From TrEMBL:
GO terms for molecular function: gamma-glutamyl hercynylcysteine sulfoxide synthase activity; iron ion binding. InterPro entries: CTDL_fold, DinB-like, DinB/YfiT-like, EgtB, EgtB_Actinobacteria, Sulfatase_Mod_Factor_Kinase, SUMF_dom, SUMF_sf. Belongs to the EgtB family. Keywords: Iron, Metal-binding, Monooxygenase, Oxidoreductase. This is Hercynine oxygenase. The keyword rRNA processing does not apply. Its cofactor is Fe(2+). NCBIfam families: egtB_TIGR03440 (TIGR03440). Residues 26-156 form the DinB-like domain. The gene is egtB. It is an enzyme of class 1 (oxidoreductase). It catalyses: gamma-L-glutamyl-L-cysteine + hercynine + O2 = gamma-L-glutamyl-hercynylcysteine S-oxide + H2O. Pathway: Amino-acid biosynthesis; ergothioneine biosynthesis. It comes from Amycolatopsis japonica.
Length: 449
């Protein structure tokens, strides 16, 4: 039996009309979010809130520019709207720190531009054949552009977190724990499982193809590491003890004066943090967020553990021992609902450990999707049989670079931009992103039945 044959493609059941409606709905949801994130004063839109980020107005017009390139010009074969701005919004041409100095479209111009591009995209979506060409099969290009917009929305959310001043974003609190006390760790049996996908219609090139990977038996934390557990590492002097840090991690921590997760501050009564303009006590039961790979790795060493590899993470998330099959998501093949996972910026924070019992994996692992991106110990490499699509700059140029893989998405990731197979990669020093982690350890021979 080939590894692909147990995979399902949920869009194949749709009529062409329903497929178009599905793509239109995904694009619309992304745009509503982009509009919400850019509905701030013009001054806030054009300002660079941190050297790490672009001005919000750059992200907005860049979203339109990518949509114009792929949907209007390529898929639609239409004439260019604004060929004069292609270069300004090419992320490869200009580093984030340099973007404010570019002759960017102003707030009104940028809003008008993305509206005009979107009107054309919808027009094209109604008429373009959704078969016969790989780029439009299963409406892939529309899914790719939806994911691109949602990814920039998450980036803009991170810019909001770096913004100084009174809160401008508001959302209800996430659910509290709905589980009893959870076991600390879960056993994952050794052996082969199917990693990656060949059938997921909107999966990106780096998630393909499905292939068999064998892992040794191991244990993984039932839930992401909490702020409370992380504070114990801090309070026991973990940031001052080079024993727990890699050489590179120690150098990074020393050079940059890193002494706690980003946005944390020590007060007389414990740790506090700033979250989207709100100063609050760090909640002990919530997964820790805004830590770099180096910090995650140091914590794991202090705890006598290690970070999971990328295949280990995916096996814990997708493998169903009852069927031997890999699921699309930990809970099954159905799309995420608000009951499964903390996604889509519905809440402006991770949820307490135990808040999503409906999202648990077959092996009993919680909150793999949503809440916080989880650092793994793996670099970004091509799967065997990888083929760049639709362009090399999507993934291929990043393979083998100085990156670590993050998995699972955060509270700021939309459901359209996450799957059990989705791979994110970033530099090991990065921590303005919504990054946390969970630990793992090898199984001892006596623990493997
Ligand atoms: Fe982009």
């Amino acid at each position: 039996m080939s590894v692909e044959s147990t995979e399902t493609n949920p869009l194949r059941a749709l009529s062409p009309q329903d497929l178009r409606a599905h793509a239109a709905e995904a694009l619309t949801r992304a745009r509503e979010r982009s509009v919400a994130l850019t509905s701030v004063d013009d001054e806030d839109l054009v300002r660079q809130h941190s050297k790490l980020m672009s001005p919000l107005v750059w992200d907005l017009a860049h979203i339109g520019s990518q949509e114009e390139l792929w949907l209007v010009r390529d898929v639609g074969g239409r004439e260019a709207l604004r060929p004069d701005i292609d270069d300004i919004y090419d992320a490869f041409q200009h580093a984030r720190a340099d973007r404010p100095a570019l002759p960017l479209l102003g707030p009104e111009e940028a809003r008008k531009y993305v509206r005009e591009v979107r009107e054309k995209s919808f027009d094209i979506l109604e008429t373009v054949p959704l078969q016969g060409r790989r780029l439009t099969e299963d409406a892939f290009a529309f899914g790719m552009i939806t994911q691109h917009e949602q990814q920039h929305d998450e980036t803009m959310l991170a810019t909001h977190q770096l913004r100084k001043g009174d809160p401008v974003l508001h959302a209800p609190a996430p659910p509290s724990s709905r589980s009893g006390p959870l076991p600390a760790e879960v056993f994952v049996p050794g052996g082969a499982f199917t990693m990656g996908t060949s059938a997921e219609p909107w999966a990106l090139d780096n998630e393909r193809p499905a292939h068999e990977v064998a892992v040794e038996a191991f244990f993984i934390d039932t839930a992401p590491v909490t702020c409370g557990a992380y504070a114990e590492f801090l309070d026991s002097g973990g940031y001052e003890d080079p024993r727990w840090w890699s050489e590179r991690g120690w150098a990074y921590r020393s050079e940059h004066g890193i002494d706690a997760p980003r946005f944390w501050k020590r007060e007389q009564d414990g740790w506090w943090r700033t979250r989207f303009g709100v100063y609050e006590k760090v909640p002990a039961a919530e997964p820790v967020v805004h830590v770099s790979f180096h910090e995650a790795e140091a914590y794991a060493a202090w705890a006598g553990r290690r970070l999971p590899t990328e295949p280990e993470w995916e096996k814990a998330a997708r493998f169903d021992p009852a069927t031997g099959r890999s699921r699309r998501f930990p809970w099954g093949d159905e799309e995420p609902t608000p009951d499964h996972a903390n996604l889509g910026q519905r809440h402006l924070r991770p949820a307490e450990v135990g808040a999503y019992p409906a999202g648990v994996s077959p092996l009993g692992v919680h909150q793999l999707i949503g809440d916080v991106w989880e650092w793994t110990s793996s670099g970004f490499e091509a799967y065997p049989g990888f083929a760049a699509f639709p362009y090399k700059e999507y993934s291929e140029v990043f393979f083998g670079g100085d990156y670590r893989i993050l998995r699972g998405g955060s509270f700021g990731t939309d459901a359209a931009a996450i799957r059990g197979t989705f791979r994110n990669w970033d530099h090991p020093i990065r921590r303005q992103i919504f990054s946390g982690f969970r630990c793992a350890r090898d199984a001892r021979p006596s623990e493997v039945a």
